[in-house]
Design brief:
The protein is built from ten helices and 14 strands. It is of the alpha/beta class.
């Protein structure tokens, strides 16, 4: 007699971190992808939810359809009471099977930060831990490709321990605590927007060598050009506005003082990377990027931020993505930590 495969229908708890601006959109997205239901809100953009899928099933679903508005997702989450004593809390965390050595465990508060009490807990975990063996619910060891690092999230009165779904579906993304990039402060950055590009390059695993050429559409004041030029990339910065002198004066930055449309009509250059952070309607910005596809080399990539309304952004986003697909059939989209009312998209030919 043929045995039927068993289906896990028991409830599982997950912890989701999303943009506080788009909480409803993110929850609807997780409801569609995973059938997730809200248990409670822990903080702005942080929710405990319940699903009927196993941790590995969740991982596979998220890899098949990466979430746009979820920055990080923890699965197989256990809620522990918090004593406030780092040593005692560390013992409670380490009592959970599989939690172990520091390289495999992220420790932060609900915002992805590291205040004094979180640092103390991490130190206790480091002192007391041993290298972990991550196991599935049935006790079998997890295959290397299915390993999910542990995260310990310190909340008000509770500690949440779970396993991190890489990049909430982007397999090569860094495991940032709560989805918050841990970039060192750089006072030389000419604009906050530079942080968006730094995050996107790491999140989407974009590797552009120093011999590459990049086109920055809508470059002023120069934050994105600055990031690229600092990596040794030859940058053509296009904008009718002025670039910060610290960027415009770099030897590997060429400035075109005009619109993106006029530059694209007259250029015969070819680029390995095109970036676009223009403050336009997202559909118009997408059309301009599609017009630029002819100056992109066959293996090149493009990064664009799509500006969205604060309320009901999904229809506009869907329309902009449809425009982008005319020139770029492969797209990955994410509302980054450093995005505001916008989504950043990686586009490949």
């Amino acid at each position: 007699m043929k045995r039927m495969a068993t289906i896990d229908t028991s409830p599982h708890t997950i912890l989701a971190f999303c943009s506080p601006l788009y909480e409803d959109v993110a929850l609807n997205e997780l409801g569609t992808l995973l059938g997730a239901r809200v248990l409670r809100k822990l903080s702005a953009g942080v929710f405990l939810l319940t699903v009927s899928h196993s941790p590995l099933d969740i991982q596979q679903r998220m890899l098949a359809t990466p979430a746009v508005f979820t920055r990080q997702l923890l699965v197989d989450v256990e809620t522990l009471p918090r004593s406030g004593l780092p040593a005692e809390d560390a013992r409670a965390v380490l009592a959970r099977p599989g939690v172990g050595s520091t390289p495999d465990v992220l420790v932060s508060d609900l915002a992805g930060r590291h205040p004094h009490d979180v640092v103390s807990l991490k130190q206790e975990l480091t002192t007391a831990s041993t290298p972990p063996t991550v196991r599935l619910d049935n006790g079998a060891e997890v295959e290397d490709e299915a390993r999910l690092p542990f995260a310990v999230v310190v909340g008000e009165g509770h500690i949440y321990v779970g396993r991190v779904v890489a990049g909430a579906g982007l397999p090569h993304a860094p495991a940032w605590p709560a989805g918050r990039p841990d970039f060192p402060f750089d006072p030389e950055l000419v604009s906050r927007s530079a942080l968006k590009l730094l995050e996107a390059l790491q999140l989407f695993d974009v590797n552009i060598g120093p011999a590459a050429r990049a086109l920055d559409l809508g470059a002023a004041p120069g934050g994105w050009s600055q990031v690229l030029a600092a990596r040794g990339i030859e940058v053509t910065a296009v904008d009718p506005g002025l670039l910060d002198p610290r960027v415009a004066s770099r030897p590997n930055v060429s400035v075109y003082a005009g619109t993106a449309q006029s530059f694209l009509r007259q250029t015969d250059e070819r680029f390995d990377l095109i970036v676009n952070d223009m403050r336009l309607d997202s559909r118009e910005s997408a059309r301009i990027l599609v017009d630029a596809v002819n100056v992109l080399r066959p293996q090149g990539v493009a990064i664009i931020t799509l500006k969205l309304p604060e309320h009901a952004p999904t229809a506009i986003l869907r329309q902009a993505l449809e425009v982008l697909r005319r020139g770029f059939p492969v797209l990955q989209a994410r509302c980054l930590y450093f995005n505001r009312n916008e989504v950043t998209v990686l586009a490949r030919r």
